[in-house]
# Entry
Amino acid sequence: QLQLVESGGGLVQPGGSLRLSCATSGFTLDYHAIGWFRQAPGMEREGVSCISGSDGSTYYADSVKGRFTISRDNAKNTVYLRMNSLKPEDTAVYYCAAVPISRWSAPFGKYDYWGHGTQVTVSS
# Structure
């Protein structure tokens, strides 16, 4: 059974850092793209970052470039999102999602499989 499980969220002060993890099972990370998305209350879901499981190419939303870093460990079937210099506007539920490389048409296009999310709150 294909699963994605996010962890690592929490409460952090502005300027702080967190590392989110997306543990995957039931599929081969090498043949999938993994994306991180977020949704704040009253807002639409937005793409944050994504990575190709095959060649490691990465993409970032303009709002997080230079602050967030996505990485993968195919041996552990896990994708990470390192978030530095966090701002209050980064507060949201963060989700990871997967799509087969063969159907990955755009960095933040349609993804087939989703985790349940982890809450990130940036506040003093």
